[in-house]
């Protein structure tokens, strides 16, 4: 009888233990997914470095900030963080030792992360290989190097991202809001910042500047004006490429590390949130005949034929796996043409997207074309496929270049 | 598409103005209008570099430009050299190859030769750059890699091309200690 009893107890004990283990596995799996959604890797992994070991330089107007080591290493990583401490770091920007994190860590968005999601992310991070290596020290100039000084900033701006009322909104919209505003922290780039680096919430998602590039407006009407529909936006997030062009510059790591790994339903939810439950119709561009274009754009047409059409096509339709189409390209439709100017002058690196899709490197033309030629080319692109006037001046180009 | 006049200097000879289509690719202009068929159309998308020609800039520098993805009118007013322009011909009709061409032949640098015009032009640009500013010994390998590495060769690999280029740079006294 005693043997039977202890066998039963052992079996029960094992069952409880394996249940707990199954729960752990599920939590770690969920945490991995959420870490993708929050795109922790983009900032906490250096180019070519070990995952989550930190070291990526993040250039800000206040100096260079380095992503920290968030592997489970006890010396240099977060191996000694409790779930409470991790939650405080993620949502309040508080380090284990009480020091303030710089708001390059997007706690202004993450402060709305649910506790169970934070716990799951920590559970996942505790399973990645610990890397016993310090990330480079962030050294900002005075007064920005005084972390204590951020206490006041945090009181004013630490919780600046707030969710919109969900009344009358679809479940997809509600899920999309959490994925876009909190996990995806899209507003950290796509919302303009004030002179002391705080998000201007009254202009949320209306576009921000980042390293001389425009993180364009994600407001529904602006997206629709640039040709976006919900299915296309979902495709863009999933594959990094759609009829509207491809992700480049700072947006490329987003698809690479984050959005391509997300579930279709979540991506569709993000598109639903951004474009709304009743999305505005995508604007159609009326073709403009060459004769109707500005003199500058007419000259630009020849520039386009000279150095662009070889890959983007005389008709602007692009070439598969070589170069994206200009016809329908969302970048051409931005009335602020700085991204177009930057792409033409600096070029774009070779890019790999999901599956076997890739695009060739685009050469930069900064030393090949003078300002007048770039201006003419931009005006042609604006008029031919952007639905915009071809009225950019050389002076305006110089300003866009300088920023 | 409309035609427009094109005028340029090709292998030292003034050409044009001639009317050519405004969207004509330079490689087609060389092949079809000038009967200069030495520049090779490989990938047609700017990757293999078999089609490159040399453009001589007004400041005395020279650079390679891909003709498969560049329109003929980009070369308006420019001085262009193609693979046909390097060898010198004497009155008897005998050819003297340029140092790079000769060394590529001597060292069997290429096999099928499809990529060779591009390699000749790229290596010639490097030699001319070194003639203006000799290379430090320590940077020679990197400079050769930067000049030739993006050209695609699928027969011999790059060892003999690199060897030949290195030899020419040394033989012409274009490498200094450092």
From TrEMBL, chain A:
Binds 3 heme c groups covalently per subunit. The keyword Aminoacyl-tRNA synthetase does not apply. Keywords: Electron transport, Heme, Iron, Metal-binding, Signal, Transport. Residues 1-22 form the signal peptide. Pfam families: Cytochrom_C. Its cofactor is heme c. GO terms for molecular function: electron transfer activity; heme binding; iron ion binding; oxidoreductase activity, acting on CH-OH group of donors. Heme c 3 binds at residues 308, 311-312. InterPro entries: Cyt_c-like_dom (IPR009056), Cyt_c-like_dom_sf (IPR036909), Cyt_C_IC (IPR008168), Cytochrome_c-type_DH (IPR051459), Membr-bd_ADH_cyt_c (IPR014353). Heme c 1 binds at residues 40, 43-44. The keyword Transport applies. Residues 26-129, 171-278, 295-385 form the Cytochrome c domain. It comes from the Bacteria. GO terms for cellular component: membrane. Heme c 2 binds at residues 186, 189-190. PANTHER family: BLL4482 PROTEIN (PTHR35008:SF4), BLL4482 PROTEIN-RELATED (PTHR35008). This is Cytochrome C oxidase Cbb3. It comes from Pseudomonas putida.
UniProtKB/TrEMBL annotation, chain B:
Coiled coil: none annotated. This is (2Fe-2S)-binding protein. The lineage of its organism: Bacteria, Pseudomonadati, Pseudomonadota, Gammaproteobacteria, Pseudomonadales. Residues 4-86 form the 2Fe-2S ferredoxin-type domain. GO terms for molecular function: 2 iron, 2 sulfur cluster binding; metal ion binding; oxidoreductase activity, acting on the aldehyde or oxo group of donors. InterPro entries: 2Fe-2S-bd (IPR002888), 2Fe-2S-bd_dom_sf (IPR036884), 2Fe-2S_ferredoxin-like_sf (IPR036010), 2Fe-2S_ferredoxin-type (IPR001041), Aldehyde_Oxdr_Iron-Sulfur (IPR052914), Beta-grasp_dom_sf (IPR012675).
């Amino acid at each position: 009888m005693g043997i039977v009893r202890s066998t039963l107890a052992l079996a029960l004990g094992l069952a409880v233990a394996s249940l707990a283990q199954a729960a752990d596995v599920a939590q770690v799996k969920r945490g991995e997914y959420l870490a993708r959604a929050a795109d922790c890797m983009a900032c906490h992994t250096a180019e070519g470095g070990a995952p989550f070991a930190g070291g990526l330089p993040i250039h800000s107007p206040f100096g260079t900030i380095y992503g920290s080591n968030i592997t489970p290493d006890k010396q240099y990583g977060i191996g000694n963080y409790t779930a409470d401490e991790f939650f405080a770091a993620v949502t309040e920007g508080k380090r284990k030792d009480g020091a303030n994190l710089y708001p390059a860590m997007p706690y202004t968005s993450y402060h709305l992360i649910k506790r169970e999601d934070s716990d799951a992310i920590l559970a996942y991070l505790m399973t990645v290989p610990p890397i016993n290596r310090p990330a480079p020290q962030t050294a900002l100039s005075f007064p920005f190097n005084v972390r204590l000084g951020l206490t006041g900033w945090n009181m004013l701006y630490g919780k600046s991202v707030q969710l919109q009322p969900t009344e009358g909104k679809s479940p997809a919209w509600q899920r999309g809001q959490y994925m876009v505003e909190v996990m995806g922290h899209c507003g950290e780039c796509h919302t303009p910042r004030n002179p002391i680096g705080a998000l201007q919430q009254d202009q949320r998602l209306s576009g921000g500047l980042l390293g001389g590039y425009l993180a364009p407006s994600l407001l529904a009407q602006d997206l629709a004006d640039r040709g976006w529909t919900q299915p296309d936006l979902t495709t863009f997030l999933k594959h990094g490429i759609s009829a509207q062009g491809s992700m480049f510059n700072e947006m490329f790591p987003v698809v690479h590390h984050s959005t391509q790994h997300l579930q279709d339903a979540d991506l569709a939810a993000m598109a639903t949130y951004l474009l709304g439950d009743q999305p505005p119709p995508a604007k159609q561009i009326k073709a403009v005949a060459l004769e109707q274009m500005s003199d500058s754009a007419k000259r630009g047409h020849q520039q386009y034929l000279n150095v662009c059409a070889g890959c983007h096509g005389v008709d602007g339709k692009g070439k598969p796996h070589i170069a994206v189409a200009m016809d329908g390209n969302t970048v051409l439709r931005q009335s602020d043409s700085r991204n177009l100017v930057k792409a033409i002058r600096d070029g774009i690196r070779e890019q790999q997207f999901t599956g076997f899709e890739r695009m060739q490197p685009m050469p930069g033309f900064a030393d090949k074309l003078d300002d007048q030629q770039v201006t003419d080319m931009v005006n042609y692109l604006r008029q031919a496929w952007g639905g915009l006037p071809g009225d950019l001046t050389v002076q305006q180009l110089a300003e866009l270049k300088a920023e | 598409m409309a035609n427009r006049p094109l005028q340029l200097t090709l292998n030292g000879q003034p050409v044009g103005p001639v009317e050519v289509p405004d969207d004509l690719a330079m490689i087609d202009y060389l092949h079809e209008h000038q009967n200069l068929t030495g520049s090779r159309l490989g990938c047609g998308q700017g990757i293999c570099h078999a089609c490159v020609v040399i453009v001589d800039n007004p400041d005395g520098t020279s650079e390679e430009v891909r003709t498969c993805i560049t329109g003929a009118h980009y070369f308006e007013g420019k001085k262009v050299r193609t693979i046909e322009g390097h060898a010198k011909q004497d009155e008897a009709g005998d050819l003297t190859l340029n140092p790079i061409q000769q060394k590529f032949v001597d060292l069997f640098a290429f096999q099928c030769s499809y990529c060779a015009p591009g390699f000749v032009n790229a290596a010639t640009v490097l030699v001319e750059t070194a003639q203006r500013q000799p290379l430090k010994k320590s940077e020679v390998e990197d400079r050769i890699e930067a000049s030739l590495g993006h050209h695609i060769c699928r027969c011999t690999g790059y060892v003999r091309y690199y060897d030949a280029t290195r030899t020419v740079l040394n033989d012409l006294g274009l490498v200094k200690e450092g």
